[in-house]
Amino acid sequence: MNGNTDVKYLSVMDKIYRVTDVQWQQSILEAEATNLSFADVLQEELSDILCFEDFTVRLINRSCTVDAQAHTCAPYDLPAAR
Description:
This protein is mostly beta strands. It has one domain. It contains no helices and 6 strands.
């Protein structure tokens, strides 16, 4: 992490998620899908998912929710729930 505790957006491959919750002590981050492009978001408000490799990350899409450890996930190839 870059020391910024005010994370607003998360990039996952070519998609932008709006961060809805970060629990720093528990290392949990939750974000929901947006229709934003990279041009719509200020660079300083955007963090790559790789910055959260030690976090449990929950990505919420329009039709489903996926829970996964960020450091164990290949893009678009998420492991089965444990």
